[in-house]
Design goal:
111 residues; 63% helix
Length: 111
């Protein structure tokens, strides 16, 4: 075994973490979830926003021959839809944030 091999042992771990690829029907399922939202105004706004994001991903993907923009749109919207109930509860409770920390206490004064 050479000195280089001793210093840099092989690892079965990947050098970067790859997010799982969304299933092919994920976008259609997300659109159905958006349309089924109990808030009609929000459902319409979000459907328009999703379609705009999807069109941008299509444009980017056709220029690069890469499916990553589609996967990014699906992951982003999954996160938005999955957190919607918690955000709705937060607003329903009057946006109580008295247990929070003032941002200036965290980052300090900017002057």
């Amino acid at each position: 075994m050479t000195d280089d091999e001793k210093r840099s042992p092989m690892s079965a771990q990947p050098d970067r973490i790859v997010a799982p690829v969304p299933p092919p029907a994920a976008a259609a399922r997300l659109l159905a979830r958006i349309r089924a939202d109990g808030n009609p105004g929000r459902a319409e706004r979000w459907e328009n926003a999703f379609r705009r994001d999807w069109a941008k991903a299509l444009e980017d993907s056709s220029a690069t021959y890469d499916l990553t923009p589609f996967h990014d749109v699906v992951r982003t919207w999954q996160g938005r839809l999955d957190t919607t109930p918690a955000v709705d509860r937060f607003f329903a409770e009057g946006m109580a944030d008295e247990d929070g920390i003032d941002l200036q206490d965290v980052i300090g004064s900017r002057s």
